[in-house]
Amino acid sequence: MKADLLALAAIVLWGALAPLGVRLAHVPPFLLTGLGLLVGSVIALPLSRFQLARWKVPLPTLLVGIYGLFGFHFLLFMALRHAPAVEANLINYLWPLGMVVMAPWFLKGVVLQTRHILAALMGFAGAAMAILGRGGSADGVQAFHPGYLFAVASAFVWASYSLRTRSLPTFATAAVGSFAAISGALSLLCHLVLEPRVVLSHQDLLLIGMLGLGPLGGAFFLWDAAIKLGDTRRIGLLAFATPILSTVLLLLTTGQALQWNVALAAALVVGAAYLGSGDTRPPRAAAQD
Predict the structure, then answer these.
(1) What residues form DSSP beta bridges with 288?
(2) Neighbouring C-beta atoms of residue 203, cutoff 10 Å
(3) I need a surface site. Which of 33, 65, 94, 139 has the fewest CB within 10 A?
């Protein structure tokens, strides 16, 4: 139950990404991500009781962290550059499905049952309904875009990162701060190479600070703790709620009415979580603070 609550807290923070992103749409994405991750990494200071030694991890663990945080965002932004945004976003949301079906490949003792596969497909259907209901369409999938490959790769990276961290030697959740700091620096390097320069206002900086403390910061620490404590299959199913919550918050903040597809999408995700719940394996290791 604690793992589910931690995962849901991360999902709530990720849901806030869309409303914040709309207000920061004029900021180049790599610059936005780089600054957000650097702000988010500061959360590790109180989490580690201001002991930087608790940020340190073996090099293989650090590389996995950079692979997850930087690799996911880099590939997602490349997908959005080279494919229609709605379709690329939908393909990217294969990652919760990947968390469910790939769990036996990464975690010893995890068995994938038919109900898990059915639940994952149901959850993806709910996510698709929420995303496509924003006014986009998936017609563009009929024509191939190179960005689709980047979107598939980004989904694989986040799913595999989430599962891989469970099987790594135990490390303090505060070490996610080092993952975020290095990934943020790499994102800023991508900004210098790939994006135009912009001048940020005081309001931009305030919103970026909120982004860093929430979707691009706090969420990663909560997610790490949840993965270490809980059943990755069930957490993957819960993650399908992210695009639904994101859609609801976006509609509310822009003054639009909620649509029928959101309620149906939510029902599918709740049904998927219920179908996929049940017997779970004991956690491998507890998360450290």
Answers:
(1) 172
(2) 10
(3) 139
